[in-house]
């Protein structure tokens, strides 16, 4: 098996946190239990997705606040918070609060762009400013400045019995270095690097124009290199890869059949760019840990990163996630050369 050029240092996972709309409690509890399991298994990080007006986590900051009180070591991340739904100042306050509560373990990942189905939701979200909202990179820049301690107001001091600060409170000094941008294009990778963020890559990239015939791994590799070329830290700038990975070492025959069917149904979308945005999807990796490790070692983008947040499939059962995470930690991690305790 060919070695990776960068030994795997941080092993993480990502979950969407599905729940039943008629009884949402058990689904949220399952998500928290999965994060607790991840810590017990030795994962370095646990990440949650963000879903608005769906049956997945709509408030990842709140969920991670709860997770911070049920764990002690594992890093907690968002992949990603779409900033089109957020006020950067209020989000900066929430993120800093959870970072303090977690003891400095929060890794917020964000992205830009208009909210999904904006025409249908804008009256509820921005009833007075829908046509004036800017969903570009400036929204990220505002969040970065506020988290990093730039002034939010020119007023501070004592007024009556109250004391006011010119910057967001609480201020968590290390949080500014743990902000991630989730991007799938060369432009977003370069912007994240220029602004000193970390970079989240996923199982989706954008083909750069109609003549782009590169495969998924080649496009993702170009984004990683563009990010690092623009980042002040250069080759040491942090990148995390988030492919869908399903090890089957301890799976039952029934589980293996379902996992393979899941991947087969999704495979056609990986053969060519999809839709007007020309999105290209990575194939889901299903098989034994040795088989998955061999495919990852051959993946040119994986060979340039040393952090992963493997995505759990959205529609599986709690018991499936327990099996998958256990195999990731005990079989796949070692097969990728990860040694416990190397993620700090």
What does the model show?
This protein has 344 residues and is α/β, with parallel strands linked by helices. The chain has a single domain (10-264, 281-335), classed as TIM Barrel, CATH 3.20.20.30. It contains ten helices and 14 strands. The strands form four sheets. Strands 1-2-3-4-7-8-10-14 form an eight-stranded parallel barrel, surrounded by six helices. A two-stranded antiparallel ribbon has the order 5-6. Helix 2 (60-68) runs parallel beside helix 3 (88-102), helix 3 (88-102) crosses helix 5 and helix 9 crosses helix 10. The longest helix has 18 residues, at 24-41. It is globular, with a radius of gyration of 20 Å. The two termini are 27 Å apart.
Coarse shape = globular
Q: Care to count the β-strands?
A: 14
Strand order of the biggest β-sheet: 1-2-3-4-7-8-10-14
The name of the CATH superfamily reads Luciferase-like domain
Instruction: From the alpha carbons, calculate the radius of gyration and give it in angstroms.
Output: 20 Å
CATH class: Alpha Beta
The portion of residues assigned to helices is 25-40%
Strand content: 15-25%
Question: What separation lies between the terminal Cα atoms?
Answer: 27 Å
Q: Count structural domains.
A: 1
User: Residue ranges: pLDDT <50 for 5 or more in a row?
Assistant: none
- The helix/strand class is alpha/beta
Series of secondary-structure elements, N-terminal to C-terminal? EHEHEHEHHEEEHEEHEEHEEHEH
DSSP helical segment count: 10
**Largest sheet, strands/sense/barrel:** 8 strands, parallel, barrel
Based on the coordinates given, report the CATH architecture. Answer: Alpha-Beta Barrel
Average predicted local confidence, pLDDT: 96
What name is given to the CATH topology?
TIM Barrel
